[in-house]
Amino acid sequence: MGSVFGSLFRIATWGESHGGGIGVVVDGCPPRLPLSEADIQFELDRRRPGQSDITTPRKETDTATIVSGVYEGLTLGTPIAITVPNADHRPEAYAEMKSKFRPSHADYTYQSKYGIRNHEGGGRSSARETIGRVAAGAIAKKILRLGSKSPVEICAYIERVHNITIPGQDGPNGPNLAFPTLEEVEATAVRCPDSDTAEKMIARIKEARNEGDSVGGVICCRVRGLPPGLGVPVFDRLEADLAKAMLSLPATKGFEVGSGFGSVGLTGREHNDRFINRGGEIHTETNRSGGVQGGISNGEELYFRIAFKPTATIIQNQATVDLQGQETELMGRGRHDPCVVPRAVPIVESMTALVLVDHWMRQEAQCGTFSFA
Amino acid sequence: MGSVFGSLFRIATWGESHGGGIGVVVDGCPPRLPLSEADIQFELDRRRPGQSDITTPRKETDTATIVSGVYEGLTLGTPIAITVPNADHRPEAYAEMKSKFRPSHADYTYQSKYGIRNHEGGGRSSARETIGRVAAGAIAKKILRLGSKSPVEICAYIERVHNITIPGQDGPNGPNLAFPTLEEVEATAVRCPDSDTAEKMIARIKEARNEGDSVGGVICCRVRGLPPGLGVPVFDRLEADLAKAMLSLPATKGFEVGSGFGSVGLTGREHNDRFINRGGEIHTETNRSGGVQGGISNGEELYFRIAFKPTATIIQNQATVDLQGQETELMGRGRHDPCVVPRAVPIVESMTALVLVDHWMRQEAQCGTFSFA
Amino acid sequence: MGSVFGSLFRIATWGESHGGGIGVVVDGCPPRLPLSEADIQFELDRRRPGQSDITTPRKETDTATIVSGVYEGLTLGTPIAITVPNADHRPEAYAEMKSKFRPSHADYTYQSKYGIRNHEGGGRSSARETIGRVAAGAIAKKILRLGSKSPVEICAYIERVHNITIPGQDGPNGPNLAFPTLEEVEATAVRCPDSDTAEKMIARIKEARNEGDSVGGVICCRVRGLPPGLGVPVFDRLEADLAKAMLSLPATKGFEVGSGFGSVGLTGREHNDRFINRGGEIHTETNRSGGVQGGISNGEELYFRIAFKPTATIIQNQATVDLQGQETELMGRGRHDPCVVPRAVPIVESMTALVLVDHWMRQEAQCGTFSFA
Amino acid sequence: MGSVFGSLFRIATWGESHGGGIGVVVDGCPPRLPLSEADIQFELDRRRPGQSDITTPRKETDTATIVSGVYEGLTLGTPIAITVPNADHRPEAYAEMKSKFRPSHADYTYQSKYGIRNHEGGGRSSARETIGRVAAGAIAKKILRLGSKSPVEICAYIERVHNITIPGQDGPNGPNLAFPTLEEVEATAVRCPDSDTAEKMIARIKEARNEGDSVGGVICCRVRGLPPGLGVPVFDRLEADLAKAMLSLPATKGFEVGSGFGSVGLTGREHNDRFINRGGEIHTETNRSGGVQGGISNGEELYFRIAFKPTATIIQNQATVDLQGQETELMGRGRHDPCVVPRAVPIVESMTALVLVDHWMRQEAQCGTFSFA
Question: Where does FMN bind (chains A, B, C, D) (predicted)?
Fold first, then answer.
């Protein structure tokens, strides 16, 4: 029941790290959207391992096949099933995990919950599950790009890795960096558009890797082109659904929108975003709200941040217990990322796109279906 | 569609700040729970205005009536409807807001979304809506207290107001404060169990009030007694549903679980929670995970934090625009809290209880209904 | 969890027959719909007891109050709460039912399910619960009447009572009766627009009443003005959602759409509805499909039928058992309808309207939000 | 959004008749259920075409692969993805349908709804979609068989084909036929356990086929071993969810539970099911209710019937229109069943099992998770 996301643009992901494959079913997609496997592959390639020398060397091509829901290049409005086979399977690499719980992984909690687990590569708790999200997100992103009068741009990037942060702080309008282009984000392996910082981040990640250790980071995600009115009071506020979307990602520990935790350091007078008339349109002078007020988009740039903890897998001996609760040791093995955050960038964008398309459809449903002149 | 929360223990709230009243319908409540209006009133009294000299002087008794679903003192298993009439209505206090948008409130976004709004007291976007949540949460808290073998305790409190914070930082096991009692939390008007800090916070809030300004804060919420196994991979992770629950509260800007944003400053080696055998039971030696791993509770203390921005209502002239987009000024009026955070404490606990009861029922449904020996 | 209906235009009903009242919360209503209590009261008056000499003589005024969601005569887009107080309470009339199960009522099953029940008047299983549906349905009907280019008309009426049926059978286009007006339906107490048949039905109902017995009947519901395209494959077919809506009504035992069970007597050649061009528009020559093909409306008249069993309450001694399973007798008492079907007519229309508004919003959400030229 | 079914035991089907394949994702399955592809294949083989000389001669092996959610022969509690490739693809057989609408099929309504359709073999509206349901239903059936103390048996069979019906009528306890065994149902190609009637039905179907015509029928589905208490008032009554499940099947036109439409011919006195004590247990003396009262199972046999219209595809010239609305003719072609009902038997059982497992989990969630002694 927990593998379905969205209310109208609804996805169901399936698959374990080392089972027969990974996939997603997208239900409720608007019809007549031009869609090909290349659209999906582009985003999957941004997510897959082995892209650069700071990610895991696992060789996974992660090739997507659209099995249903598209006909002669256009979506049918019926469920779109996308599958990605697993590959590069080395079960022997996981033998020790069959009986021992990896610290700060989901081994113990899955075992407690279900009384069973697929220990190979983390099974369902593996980040490979996010392949389905990225595939679905690629569709959502294309809808936002092509389907609305004002194309919506979503851009996520890395703002911090361990103790390395893009210099400067948020101004009254949010991140102190111009809205980056995709090219700027993709320019470095670490997906930080500030190239000086990117270099330091890469060095820090390599250092962690060399020590058999790992580091985390912060992703900033920004959206421009959103119309006002998206988001539903009370429980399904736009930021609430975004928070859920982001905290549903592996390794996430925090979410903040707009001024976030930093808002606590300001007073109301300092924090409020005054309304102004800019060229005949209502805008806010500042944007500490982060593009959302009362749970509803206000037409300003939407921005939010997500904290990712350091990767739980480290190449070191760690104390742990086995299935019987006996204390033992586990040697970290496998081919893992010393920092997952760069590969999480397209995942964050995907979840964002899924939330936005869903809310846009909800807004149209309630406020655009009937009119009472 | 956005006023329904939960999948099995499901609530629907209704009501505007200045309409005919506020209420909630709780659907899916377990039968035979002893329940009286006093159970609900206790929590509503913690939430209502006018409790102390640092909250709004509005006089609202917020008296709850259980209209259905309880018979001879026990829940029937059918929907429990609870209503709270509105009172102390002063429409003239809101006349100016009819045509002007209050900065950093939801006036503009509601108007953009719906083409109409009830401007009196913020209408549906008012924090009065949370009355329904607290009433439902009171039921959920009683279920958690009475209905499980190991009673679950939920305790939220204020950790920070503006620049005043409880001294010290999280240790490897989380908050550097012993799990507080309800009495310790309720001892001061600001609901900070550290009495020295509470005094400073109260002073800071009064200072803000005297300046016609406002401040925000951080609430820490802690839960002990949870069994392992609650939370559903992938999208409905326990922390994802908690994040959504918290970000659905007015004035919230951030959420973090366990080590949260602070996790980014640690390496994997420093951050991982090793498993140990303590008295025959599996535990983690440290608790940077915050009681949840892979989206599922691990039996350790669950803790998370929520950032509340400074109250948007300030008693000052602010630049804004009117319905036609003309620039104008709005004088802050009304009887508002210079800091909403103390009154948010029972609301945070309520949302937490709602999420936990729902997930507990989901766990039992999937893993406790059928058995295959 | 079973008291919420609809996906986008979503209602939650609450209340027992003899508790504090009955009500409904309507979430997701389009904004700016003119709405007053009179709109709702009109339909409630059609449903309430005591309308005529063939319904129960219970005096229930069933007066609706709109408590939220409407401002200055227009819907706000936020939840609309409607309450109806209970009245004419005679608990002594139900004393015997506290310990004995009424045959073919829900007493035993509620007790089995919940281990508790409110025995007074059937509690939650009472047909009084449908007040909430009718109140919500009144809103949905108004939306369909005012909100779309081609106003949608919904007309339900009684086609059969016990062994009395409107003469004639369905033709190739459905019911052998011209689409009735509201006035024709309301002309008789039995809500059968064929006045000769109505007279016989009334006589039959009175006869049953005089014998302390009861009778059931069949309602036909017809809708015209629907656009093609409403209904969602696969599971949420229009007729599937209508079937669920109808079988969720007390005392219903069957549902059929279009040719229904009668279709089995025809061959494919006889049954198929050929397409024709009528005045430049695509139509079907016949309408055995009943306005829906593959789960989606085709623009023809939608028609379906619902079977209601004879009222379970009869004024006779009946064998039964008590809470301990001991065999005993129960004397039927109370003021009940010898035939519930006439009062079910507005309820059927309401459920129909709820389904149609919901599906219309779903259609617009998926196919009207985005366009890819 | 319409391809997801169930609230806790939730399935999402995907696939078109002539796309890349058909499949289903089952989310919320209890863990540790022994499950193999053979379990699924058994039911798929009952559904697939080419089983006998009265079904379509299309050669479809419909071989199921379990791609995820099962590990070492046991379910993991995570989503189970099952895929079935399409085969025997003859696009040229459908060329004419690209521009012409088949009468009483979903071609026109899909085109109206989506502005596009996959015309080959009916695309998503094809009965091939039910493969996913049967695969998921096989899992649900196994859960009901193995997972509960009192094994639940579900048996559907054909009661009527065109004008051939099993002789006799329902008695006070329901169908006038002893609860059939699977062997009795499978003994004839028509799946009617009364062998004399079966022979006549087969003859009638062959006659229709020889005339290029088609016939429909009625399926009776019976369930024994259900505990009391399954089903949720108000909207999610057991029979309401069953009605929705059945009316979501292609070619269905009606549903009735227990006495169904026949109840209208009885009076309350004749129809009521009196309670008795049978061997220390509460039962009803008769079972016109069909095992459900007030929407909740009462422990008696559950039985209901579904009407299937005659197959829309006939091998005859039929008048129709083309995409532009021009009147034209369409020659029926393809390899279709002159009567779909025999192959619908396992589909009906599958949908029944899905509803029952879901409701059982819901019952346990609400009434079995917490206890208040």
Answer: 124-126, 294, 309-313, 335
